[in-house]
Amino acid sequence: MKHAVITGAAHGIGKALAHRFAQAGYAITGVDMDTAGAARVERELDARFVIADLRSEADIARVLPKLIQGKPIDILIHNAGINAVGRFPDISIENHEHVIAVNFYAPMLLTAALLKADRIAKGASIVFISSLSHYTSYPGAATYAATKSGLASYARSLSIALAPQNIHVMTVFPGPTRTAHARRHSPQNTREEKRMPPEKLAHHIFRGVQKKKHLIVPGATNRMFALLGKWCPPLMEYAMRKVILEKL
Amino acid sequence: MQKKTILITGATDGIGRALAKIYWTRGDRLILVGRRTLDTLNNPLYTKNTYCRADLSQDKCADRVCAFLNAQKIDAIDLAIQNAGTGYFGPIAEQSVESIREITAVNLMAPLRLTHALIPYLKKANGKLVLIGSITHAFPCPDYAVYAASKEALNTLGRNLKIENDINVQIIHPGATRTGLHRKIGMDNEKTKKFPSAEKVAQKITQAIDGRRLVATIGWGNTWARFLGRYCEGIVNAMVRTT
Ligand SMILES: NC(=O)c1ccc[n+]([C@@H]2O[C@H](COP(=O)([O-])OP(=O)(O)OC[C@H]3O[C@@H](n4cnc5c(N)ncnc54)[C@H](OP(=O)(O)O)[C@@H]3O)[C@@H](O)[C@H]2O)c1
Ligand SMILES: NC(=O)c1ccc[n+]([C@@H]2O[C@H](COP(=O)([O-])OP(=O)(O)OC[C@H]3O[C@@H](n4cnc5c(N)ncnc54)[C@H](OP(=O)(O)O)[C@@H]3O)[C@@H](O)[C@H]2O)c1
C-alpha cells in the first residue's frame, strides 16, 4: 500500500486531498494541529494523524521522528497554510512571522529532514500548495504572497535537484477555493459559490501527480488570470487592488 | 544636495560596505547595521554614532535597531537599504536546520521585521525602502534552493508593498558580484574572481536608487537572464537540468 503524508489534512483542501488519495488506495498520514478535526478525519478514513503546530520549530522536531519511523513516503503534500490579511503595517509582526513559519519555513524543514532520513521513496512525488497570488499579486496579504512565491521557487529548484533520484516535484497554484480559509480571509463572501470546491481541486492535484506534471493552475478561469498576471502584471495588479485591497 | 539619513544593513562587507563608502563621500548621515563588534571594524565609516550592532538572524533584531535610532535621536529615514544576506551552497539533503533557519531569518524575516519597524521613520521623511534581492530569484537553483526562495519571497513582498502603496519601495537585483559571500557559503572561489567588483555593483545600485524603477536589475546581461528565467521557465529549467 502506498503512503501519502499531507499537512493541514484536518480541514479544507488537505482533507479533500486525504479523501482523494485514500480513495485511490493510499494509506494516509495527516499532520495538523486541530486534534478534534484530525480525529474526525481519522474516523472517516482510517487515516492516522500526528498532531503538530507547524508554527513551532520544536513541534516539527518532535513529530519528525514519527514520520521518519513510519512507512516510506510515496506522496508528500505541503498543504497547511495560513494567511494574515490587512495592510502590511496594520498586521502585527507576530502574525507576519507565523505566516512565514507555516507557509514557507515548515515545508523546507520537513522536506530537508525527510530527504536526509531517506524517507522519500524512489518514484515519489512532493507537492507544494502555492497560490494563484504568485501570478496575480495579492495586495492586502503581502507576506502571504511572499511565502507562496518563495515556496514555488523552492519547489522549482527542488524539482531539478531531485530529478536524478527519480523524485517528482509539483507546484499547485490554486485560485479561490471554497474552504474556511478563503471564507475567513476574503473581504466579502457573497460569491462563495464561484470558488472551486476543494474536492474538485483535490482531483486536479491527484491527476497532476499521476501525470507527473511540474506546475498546475487548476481551472480555466484561474489559468486565464495566471496568464494575465504573468504577461501583463499592471492590469492584474490594478484589478487586485480594486477587488481586494480597497475592500478591506 | 541636502544631507540624507541612510540606513544600510549588512554594511560591514561586500556590497553593503561599498554602498556605505559611496554615501559617506556624499556626506550623508549613515546608520550602518552589522553583526561584528565595532572594535574589529578599522575604518572611519564605523563609529559609535554610525554603527549599530545587531545580529539579523535574531528575533529581536528590529528592536535593537530602533533602540539605536532612538539613542541617536533619529526619527526620520530617507533611505533604508536592506542588503544583509547569507546563503548555503550544496545538496539540499545535507543542509543543516541551522542553515535553513539562518537564511530564512536574515534574508526574509529580518527585512520583514525591519520594514515593519521602520515604516514610521520612512513615512516621516517620505523616504524609500530598498530591498536587495538577487537575479537567482528568477532561476531554479538546485544547489542553493533556500537562498533563491528567500530572494523570490523578498521580491514578491516588495511587489505587493508597492501595490499597497504605504511607502515608496524598490527592489534591486544584483547579479554575481565579487564579495566575501561565496567564500562564506562554501562556494568554490575560482569562478568568482571574474565577477564585477562590489564597488562597481554598488555604484550601479546607487544609480538605480536615484531612479524610479520599481524593480531594477544591475547590468544588461543580468536583466536579460532574469527575463529569460521568469518568462521562458521551461527552457531555462531544461538548460539547468542538463548542466
Ligand atoms: N482556500 C483558498 O482559496 C486557497 C487559495 C489558494 C491557496 N490556498 C492554500 O491551500 C492550502 C490549504 O488551504 P485551505 O483553504 O484548505 O485552508 P483551511 O481550510 O484553513 O485548512 C488548512 C488546514 O491547515 C491546518 N493548519 C493551519 N495552521 C496550522 C499549523 N500551524 N499547524 C498545523 N496545521 C495547521 C488547519 O488546521 P486548523 O483548522 O486547526 O487551523 C487546517 O486543517 C493553504 O496552504 C492555502 O494557503 C487556499
Ligand atoms: N555577491 C553576489 O554574487 C550577490 C549576487 C546577488 C545578490 N547578492 C546579495 O547582495 C547582498 C550583499 O551580499 P554581498 O555579496 O555583499 O555579501 P557579503 O560580502 O557576505 O556581505 C553581506 C553582509 O551582510 C552581513 N550579514 C550576514 N549575516 C548577518 C547577520 N546575521 N546579522 C547582521 N549582518 C549580517 C555580513 O556581515 P559579516 O561581514 O559579519 O559577514 C555582511 O556585512 C546580499 O543580500 C546578497 O544576497 C549578492
Annotate the secondary structure layout.
The complex is a heterodimer of chains A (248) and B (243).
Chain A: E1 3-7, H1 12-23, E2 27-32, H2 35-45, E3 48-51, H3 57-69, E4 73-78, H4 93-116, E5 120-129, H5 133-136, H6 142-162, E6 168-172, H7 180-185, H8 198-210, E7 215-216, H9 220-231, H10 233-243
Helix pairs in contact in A: 1-8, 3-4, 4-6, 9-10
Chain B: E1 5-9, H1 14-26, E2 29-34, E3 51-53, H2 61-71, E4 79-82, H3 97-125, E5 128-132, H4 145-164, E6 168-173, H5 181-184, H6 198-210, E7 215-217, H7 220-231, H8 233-242
Parallel strand pairs in B: 1-2, 1-4, 2-3, 4-5, 5-6, 6-7
Helix pairs in contact in B: 1-6, 2-3, 3-4, 7-8
The structure holds NADP nicotinamide-adenine-dinucleotide phosphate (NAP) (2 copies).
What coarse outline of chain B follows from CA principal-axis ratios?
Answer: globular
Mean pLDDT of chain B: 95
The CATH superfamily of chain A is identified as NAD(P)-binding Rossmann-like Domain
CA gyration radius of chain A, whole angstroms: 17 Å
Question: Brief description of this entry?
Answer:
The complex is a heterodimer of chains A (248) and B (243). Chain A has helices at residues 12-23, 35-45, 57-69, 93-116, 133-136, 142-162, 180-185, 198-210, 220-231, 233-243, and strands at 3-7, 27-32, 48-51, 73-78, 120-129, 168-172, 215-216.
What key attributes describe this structure?
heterodimer, A: 248 residues, alpha/beta, Rossmann fold, 7-stranded parallel sheet, 7 strands, 51% helix, B: 243 residues, 8 helices, binds NADP nicotinamide-adenine-dinucleotide phosphate
Structure report:
- The complex is a heterodimer of chains A (248) and B (243).
- Chain A is of the alpha/beta class.
- Chain A has a single domain, classed as 3-Layer(aba) Sandwich (Rossmann fold), CATH 3.40.50.720.
- In chain A, 51% of the residues lie in helices and 15% in strands.
- Chain A has a 7-stranded parallel β-sheet with strand order 3-2-1-4-5-6-7, sandwiched between helices.
- In chain A, strand 1, helix 1 and strand 2 form a beta-alpha-beta unit.
- In chain A, helix 1 packs across helix 8 and helix 3 runs parallel beside helix 4.
- Chain A is globular.
- Chain A starts with a strand and ends in a 5-residue tail after the last helix.
- The mean pLDDT of chain A is 95.
- Chain B has one domain: NAD(P)-binding Rossmann-like Domain (Rossmann fold).
- Chain B has 8 helices and 7 strands; from the N terminus they run E-H-E-E-H-E-H-E-H-E-H-H-E-H-H.
- Chain B has 243 residues and is an alpha/beta fold.
- Chain B is 46% helix and 13% strand.
- The mean pLDDT of chain B is 95.
- Chain B has a 7-stranded parallel β-sheet, sandwiched between helices.
- The interface between A and B is large, with 50 and 47 residues.
- The complex binds NADP nicotinamide-adenine-dinucleotide phosphate (2 copies).
